[in-house]
Specification:
single chain, 732 residues, alpha/beta, Leucine-rich repeat, LRR (right-handed beta-alpha superhelix), 15-stranded mixed beta sheet, repeat, cell membrane, RLP23-like, LRR_dom_sf, signal
Length: 732
């Protein structure tokens, strides 16, 4: 049936809007619809239809005929065979490529005996039966070239995706320029050379151009500025050696631009402000210099991502940045920016990442940053910022990374930082902080760097129940006033540092009764749910106690619940001011130091759940203050020492799960004479034989159940490590 006049008018207006619009197009029921920014289709407006009604009848009849043809062709089969010339061009190109790896490879379906539109993988056709798209991403075409494909034989081609194939050679400029219907071109992740062809600027319909990750080289053609319909331009890591052509500012439809990781120099042209639909803008890792033009922020209302890091921009951060209300990520680190952090940044309510590190910024941290309640990452490190950390930072309750190191910040850290419950990285080093460190109510911290800050009087350092890993940082041993070191229930590995004697406050007994009368104490507490007011919570004698008022007398080390191995260093016994020592639930091996008795003030000693062997030193009976002892679940042997303080520790569980021990308070008696050690060893081996037999049977059964683990060693090792990890965590 014929279209009525109203529909004719709607169709013509839609055609005109489509021709002038930069929005994506889709075919609607009666013509062409325009996609809005959200990708939603809207029917063409009919405003001005009366003007179209005054066209000649001949013109109207022609449009009617075209509309009827469009409707009828939409109803035709989309699997019709393309013209023979198009099929032959594709088959000739296939013959120049490496043979398919298998019968299931996409190019295996390309055969003269089958219909291209119906059966050829990666080939799509339009309603007219012509090839409209070729999509063969990552199918292994290394060794092939794009020049071998006769693109001039594919005049209706709208989409070409040959990314990730290792294609070599140059992009054939003349052939590509013939593709006047081309909408999308993706040749990324290949080995293409020869530069970006200026002829690409002659493709009026092009909306997506992706040439990233190719060693193209050369300059950015100014002719790209003619691509008024282009929405996405990605030339990242393309080996470009160029400046930025101001003509690119004419790409008024551009929403995504990535020119990062090239060798682009010069300045950022103010003409780029003409890209009024810009959303994501990446120019990082280049050699750009000059100032950041403020015009771009006035004209890019939809900007959400701005990455300009690793360049040489100078000057100040433009206050106009406050106009980019939709900005979510701002990365300006590693430039030469100076001046203060503009207060206008505090109005970017959608900001999730603010990275201004490694510049020359001065002045205080604006308290307006406390308004950025969506902020997840805040990095201001390696600048010249001064003053105190504003208390308003505590409002950033979803903050995960806070890096303020290497500045000139001073004063006390605000107590409001304890509200950062999601914090997992905190770096405050190389500043001039003093005073009490807040109680960070977080169990999510995986890295803390305070070293270099002026906290020489720090006495109590608690990082327990977090997720720290790696070796115990040697920088901790620079805190000479440290009395309490609690790193328990983390994932530390490595060995116990031998330089523990540098903790001089643990070498001499603490006799200070009124700590407020001498030196103001410093507390760093990163365990959850505690607030300090001259009180301290310590795992003492296998229970948690609260110490208040006289915490200056508290001296101890708790490294329990980690993955620390190696031997207990003998230097540890030089810390004669220790009142408690907890090294349980680790992988310590070797023997207990013979001079353990030098720790005369020790009241609590827990070495349980390790792999310690040998005898129990007799010096342990010299610990006259010892009231809590746990040596269970090791591989100790021989006779348990007696006398003095050990007489009061009569609980057999202290020595349980040590198959070679004998004597009181155990029910196993020791024979007299020199044969004791030999007999003890035989008993140990007998017990170990039963113990390991059970384990071997369990492991063998597990292997039968998980047969694949037997044949793949990396899987097996990872699985057993995971079981051991879970076991350790449960024991905590």
């Amino acid at each position: 049936m014929l279209l009525d006049r109203s529909r004719q008018q709607r169709w013509r207006v839609g055609q005109r809007r489509a021709a002038n619009s930069s929005e994506p197009l889709v075919k609607g029921q009666w013509g062409i619809h325009v996609l809005d920014q959200e990708g939603l289709s809207s029917a063409p407006s009919c405003r001005g239809c009366h003007r179209h009604g005054r066209r000649s009848r001949n013109h109207t009849a022609a449009l009617l005929l075209y509309a009827l043809t469009l409707v009828l062709t939409r109803a035709s089969s989309s699997t019709a065979s393309p013209p023979a010339a198009e099929a032959r061009a594709l088959l000739r190109w296939k013959s120049t490529l490496p043979p398919p790896r298998s019968t299931t490879a996409p190019l295996s379906s390309w055969s003269p005996a089958t219909a291209a539109c119906a059966s050829w993988a990666g080939v799509t056709c339009g309603a007219d039966g012509r090839v409209a798209g070729v999509a063969l991403p990552g199918v292994g075409l290394a060794g092939g070239t794009l020049a071998a494909l006769d693109l001039t034989a594919l005049p209706a081609l709208a989409s070409l995706n040959l990314s990730g194939n290792g294609l070599a050679g140059a992009i054939p400029a003349a052939a590509v320029s013939s593709l006047t219907s081309l909408v999308s071109l993706d040749l990324s992740n290949n080995a293409l050379t020869g530069g970006v062809p200026p002829a690409l600027g002659t493709l009026p319909a092009l909306r997506v151009l992706v040439l990233r990750d190719n060693p193209l080289g050369g300059a950015i053609p100014a002719s790209l500025g003619r691509l008024r319909a282009l929405e996405r331009l990605d030339l990242q890591a393309a080996g470009l050696v160029s400046t930025l052509p101001p003509e690119m500012g004419n790409m008024a439809s551009l929403r995504f631009l990535d020119l990062s990781a090239n060798n682009i120099s010069g300045g950022l042209p103010p003409a780029f402000a003409g890209m009024k639909k810009m959303i994501e803008f990446y120019l990082s890792r280049n050699r750009l210099s000059g100032t950041i033009p403020p015009e771009i922020f006035n004209n890019w209302p939809d900007l959400t991502l701005l990455y300009l890091h690793y360049n040489s921009f100078t000057g100040t951060i433009p206050p106009e940045i406050g106009e980019a209300k939709k900005l979510r990520r701002l990365s300006l680190f590693s430039n030469n920016l100076t001046g203060v952090i503009p207060a206008e940044i505090g109005g970017l309510a959608s900001l999730q990442m603010l990275h201004l590190g490694q510049n020359g910024l001065t002045g205080p941290i604006p308290f307006y940053l406390g308004n950025l309640t969506q902020l997840v990452i805040l990095v201001l490190s390696f600048n010249n910022l001064t003053g105190m950390v504003p208390a308003e930072i505590g409002r950033l309750t979803v903050l995960q990374d806070l890096d303020l190191n290497n500045n000139q910040l001073e004063g006390e850290l605000p107590a409001s930082l304890s509200m950062l419950k999601d914090l997992n990285y905190l770096s405050l080093g190389s500043n001039s902080f003093v005073g009490t460190v807040p109680d960070f109510a977080s169990r999510k911290l995986v890295s803390v760097e305070l070293y270099g800050s002026r906290l020489p009087l720090l006495r109590f350092l608690r990082l327990r129940s977090n997720m720290f890993n790696g070796s115990i940082p040697l920088q901790l041993l620079q805190l000479s006033h440290l009395q309490l070191l609690d790193l328990s229930s983390n994932n530390f590995d490595g060995h116990i540092p031998r330089a523990l004697t540098s903790l001089t406050s643990m070498v001499q007994p603490q006799t200070e009764l009124n700590m407020r009368s001498t030196v103001r104490h410093q507390i760093l507490h990163l365990e959850a749910n505690f607030y300090y007011d001259d009180r301290l919570y310590v795992n003492w004698k296998m229970q948690t106690y609260e110490f208040q008022g006289v915490i200056a007398l508290m001296t101890g080390i708790d490294l329990s619940g980690n993955f620390i191995g190696g031997e207990i260093p003998t230097e540890l016994t030089n810390l004669q001011g220790l009142r408690f020592l907890n090294l349980s639930r680790n992988y310590l091996s070797g023997t207990i130091p013979e001079n353990i008795g030098d720790l005369k003030l020790l009241e609590s000693l827990d070495l349980s759940w390790n792999e310690l062997s040998g005898h129990i030193p007799s010096g342990i009976s010299e610990l006259i203050s010892l009231s809590s002892l746990n040596l269970s679940s090791n591989m100790l042997s021989g006779e348990i020492p007696t006398g003095k303080q050990l007489q009061t520790l009569a609980d057999p569980s202290i020595y349980s799960n040590n198959f070679g021990l004998c004597g009181s308070p155990l029910s196993i008696s020791c024979p007299n004479g020199s044969s004791v050690q030999i007999l003890d060893r035989s008993k140990e081996f007998e017990g170990l034989y039963v113990y390991y037999s059970i384990i071997a049977g369990a492991v063998f059964g597990l292997w039968l159940w998980l047969g694949s683990l037997v044949f793949f060693a990396p899987w097996r090792i990872s699985f057993l490590y995971y079981i051991d990890f879970i076991h350790r965590k449960l024991m905590r």
